[in-house]
């Protein structure tokens, strides 16, 4: 008798998960997609020559300036971090930067609250930008 009850519970659980899990995952995917900035939104929000703050996951902060002419500069606001200059361009997913002496890297920008955005490379958080 116990075996048949356990089997019935497992069957019901399996059916419920097969219905509920795709719905939950679809909602999470839609929320992620809805909060991701388009390349044009990235350009109009950040690449206007006005400074904003970038914080790395380890807590290093920079003043960032992306100029409309395709140049980018960063300056540490504390004792950690290195000053840098480079270029930026939009791509299909977001934007790419090339710092002097380094290879290009591309990122997507995801809304992370009021005046806060997560800068992602694949599934890795690279920085948080704030205004």
Summarize the helices and strands and which ones pair or pack.
Layout: H1 2-35, H2 39-46, E1 52-55, E2 61-66, E3 71-76, E4 84-90, E5 95-99, E6 105-111, E7 116-121, E8 124-130
Antiparallel strand pairs: 1-2, 1-8, 2-3, 3-4, 4-5, 5-6, 6-7, 7-8
Can you describe this structure?
By secondary structure, the chain is an alpha+beta fold. A hairpin with a 4-residue loop joins strand 4 (84-90) and strand 5 (95-99). The protein is 32% helix and 37% strand. The model is unreliable at 8-13 and 19-34 (pLDDT under 50). The protein has an 8-stranded antiparallel beta barrel. The chain is globular.
Kindly state the percentage of residues in helix: 25-40%
- Rg, Cα atoms, Å: 21 Å
| Strand-pairing-aware structural class | alpha+beta
- Helix tally equals 2
- Summed over residues and divided by their number, the pLDDT gives a mean of 84
The SSE order reads: HHEEEEEEEE
Placed side by side, the strands forming the largest sheet appear as 1-2-3-4-5-6-7-8
Q: Which term fits the overall shape?
A: globular
- Let me know the number of strands: 8
Euclidean distance between termini CA atoms: 64 Å
How much of the polypeptide forms β-strand, as a percent range? 35-45%
The biggest beta sheet, please?
8 strands, antiparallel, barrel
Low-pLDDT stretches are 8-13, 19-34
């Amino acid at each position: 008798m116990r075996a048949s009850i356990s089997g019935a519970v497992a069957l019901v659980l399996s059916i419920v998960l097969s219905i509920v899990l795709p719905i939950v995952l679809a909602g999470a995917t839609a929320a992620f997609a809805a909060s991701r900035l388009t390349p044009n939104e990235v350009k109009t929000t950040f690449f206007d020559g006005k400074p904003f703050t970038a914080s790395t996951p380890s807590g290093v902060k920079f003043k960032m300036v992306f100029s409309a002419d395709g140049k980018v500069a960063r300056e540490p606001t504390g004792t950690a971090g290195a000053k840098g200059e480079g270029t930026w361009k939009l791509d299909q997913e977001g934007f790419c930067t090339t710092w002097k002496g380094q290879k290009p890297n591309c990122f997507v920008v995801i809304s992370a609250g009021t005046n806060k955005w997560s800068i992602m490379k694949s599934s890795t958080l690279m920085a948080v930008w704030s205004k």
